[in-house]
Amino acid sequence: MKYCRFQQNSQTHYGLVESVAGREAIVRILLTSPEEAGGDMESLRTRRIEPIALDEATLLAPVRPSKIVCVGRNYREHAAELGNEVPTEPLLFFKPASSLLAPGGTILRPRIAERTDYEGELGIVIAKRCHRLPDDEDTRPYILGYTCVNDFTARDLQNKDGQWTRAKGFDTFYPVGPVVTESLDPWTGIQVETRVNGEVRQSGNTKDFIFSLGIVLRYISQIMTLEPGDLIATGTPKGVGPVVAGDVVEVAIDGVGVLRNPVADEA
Ligand code: MG
Prior knowledge:
Layout: E1 2-8, E2 11-20, E3 23-30, H1 34-37, E4 46-53, E5 58-60, E6 68-72, H2 76-81, E7 91-95, E8 100-101, E9 107-109, E10 116-118, E11 120-126, E12 143-150, E13 153-154, H3 155-161, H4 165-169, E14 174-181, E15 191-196, E16 199-205, H5 213-223, E17 231-233, E18 241-242, E19 248-253, E20 257-265
Parallel strand pairs: 6-17, 8-14, 9-20
Antiparallel strand pairs: 1-2, 1-5, 1-14, 2-3, 3-4, 6-7, 10-13, 10-18, 11-12, 11-17, 12-14, 15-16, 15-19, 19-20
Magnesium ion (MG) binds at residues 70, 72, 119, 121, 151, 233, 235-236.
């Protein structure tokens, strides 16, 4: 299944997305949220609506996570391009929920940042509570679906601060969407592409992860309990770079679609 979150008549809904006459459209409202379903998507109650074309809907970020856990340096060539060692265990950091941004929303460059970079990544949404997963347990049932994320970063502040909360945590620094879908298999390889003003800047494949999704989920679950709806960013491939006001960043993953966000300077 594929779903989004959207706004209609000043109300917010989760919507089921299907192809209608060759075009993606919201065809049902989810009356229970994917987080409430706790991984049992068959239990979701829905209500049919007059289809709304996805590209005409007022989309919101399709997630409401209790936490956003990010993996840094999960592609060898990206670690190298910033002059870092390849990590020997997953490198984790948080982004605040206040950094979430809707598809189409404007990323605001703070005045105190000199260099702001896109980081296109595959995002994972957690299906059900996940605590201290043993090595022999299959992690796939804990994954509700996949989405595009842009782990936007103030690179100069990241280098200056020594930890990353400020550099990664500004409002609007976490575009997510446009949909969440389960119909991908990152284990066999998903292409993650980032474009700036239509020009391809990053093109990575999840089969090149240093740490597979299974390792990442098990590792995080030893530290903290993951809740339904929590979001995990899996790391960015090589090709990160700065953007300025007026640029448009797109993160594209087959099956999820294109997450497109313009960039502007903070007023
Ligand atoms: Mg990142």
